[in-house]
Write a structure and sequence with these properties.
The protein is of the alpha+beta class and about 170 residues long. It has two helices and eight strands.
Length: about 170
């Protein structure tokens, strides 16, 4: 039996100079691997009022097709962007202004199929565009606020290329 675990990214079994105490836990396999997150399974957040009303706003203004349970199920095969399909996860510093003018501690980024058309629809419905559109290496972005003051990032993804970025 060998001791199980990882030190400095190396399985204990790969560190020949390490002497394990006699009472160290043992296992029968060569090394231990950590279970890990493989993707975002969903985004759920609390409304400041009626969840159904906020859900209806997202349906009416961003085209989310709501299911009977009140939420939307977005399927990767329905996304036709040429970026290979990906979901970004990140943590902003406490002094970040990225989510401003929202006071919320999080922001949802929605992949969209036609940012220019969606922005035209939003303007026609009197939804203010907070910022954008902007071109970046990985696509085009714009930001709006939902009726409860949450900043929403809209992203039309593209395959990464330095020449995608605008001035």
């Amino acid at each position: 039996m060998r001791a199980c675990g990882v030190i400095a990214g190396q399985p204990i079994s790969a560190l020949p100079s390490l002497r394990m105490p006699q009472n160290a836990p043992t296992c029968s396999r060569q090394e231990t691997t950590m279970a890990k997150v493989t993707g975002i399974g969903g985004v759920c957040f609390k409304s400041t009022g009626k969840g159904a009303a906020l859900g209806a706003w997202y349906r009416d203004h961003l085209g989310l097709e709501l299911s009977d349970f009140g939420g939307a199920v977005l399927k990767w095969p329905d996304d036709k962007a040429d970026d290979g399909g990906l979901t970004v996860w990140c943590v902003a510093d406490a002094d970040s202004t990225w989510f401003s003018p929202s006071q919320a501690s999080m922001m949802v980024n929605y992949r969209v199929d036609d940012l220019d058309e969606l922005l035209a629809q939003l303007r026609a419905a009197d939804v203010a565009i907070v910022k954008g559109p902007e071109s970046h290496e990985n696509g085009n972005f714009a930001w709006i606020m939902d009726p409860e003051g949450n900043k929403v990032e809209l992203w039309q993804p593209m395959a990464w290329a330095p020449n995608n970025k605008g001035d």
